[in-house]
Amino acid sequence: MARRLPPLNTLRAFEAAARLGGFTHAARELNVTPAAVSHQVKVLEDFVGQRLFRRLARGLVLSEVGRAYADGLGQGLDRLAQAQGVLYERRPKGLLRITALPSFAHAWLSHRLPEFLDLYPEVSVELFLEYTATDFSAGDRDVGIRYGLGNYPGLRTTHILNDEVFPVCSPALLNGPTPLRTPRDLLNHTLIHDCATRLEEEIQTWTPWLRRYGLEDEHPPRRLGFSDSTAVLRCAVGGYGVALGRTSLVAEYMAQGRLVRPFKDVLPTDFTYYLVAPEATADEPRIAAFRAWLLDVARAEHDTITGM
Known about the structure:
It is built from 10 helices and 12 strands. It is of the alpha/beta class and 308 residues long. The strands form 3 sheets. The protein has a 5-stranded mixed beta sheet. A 5-stranded mixed beta sheet has the order 9-8-10-7-11.
């Protein structure tokens, strides 16, 4: 059932006048004129259909109804102020220390963090680019973004992004001296890959792709490996070969037209990104705010990628 409540300004004016004993003192507290306070009280009296003040020669006196109303209103405003105080204390603030893989930080996270800071001006951020999984027991990191299967005992784990793997290259390769138009044309190009890929991530190597295209028995094309995904993609942007890209890392390059997909084939991977935080601190305001913001941005990113 909807509450039938008078305008808030009328309640503020009446409460101040009742507490301070007149329109003049109330006007001074509210930084308005006594006439404005009188008008707001009159609006409130019309709303409730009863006189809240008795206007005597010696000044204003609360009516019996007005006294009861003022007592209840004062208690209500006290509870409102208390609730506001709780919200104020729970506002996101302080330093948030994030650890993430360099590839993800460069391609996805770092240029988005100013948006988070704009939303939460009392939060400061430090982003640490690290290859190894952080031991949170040291207390020098608050949250981490990890790439894996989501099995992180003792940590609050939140899935962020799904990934797919597909070939990418510079637009210049599509119609260059050795055009890249069919999968067989891969044999004429350098295949760029991340040589730090773990065995369980074979989908992110060229072996299953050559097998998929029936090229595994052909003379193997030249390979170029880097132990860093950022270097892999920069080499592809430079037109030096065809790389295997992950949606999370190539979306920005594709949106800028610096990388394209020569073929429509994609392969899903079980490895995805997760936000992790120690269970004991996972609900702290600045961490909860970062988690909610990250999920919102990731959903929007997914919608953008699927539309490419």
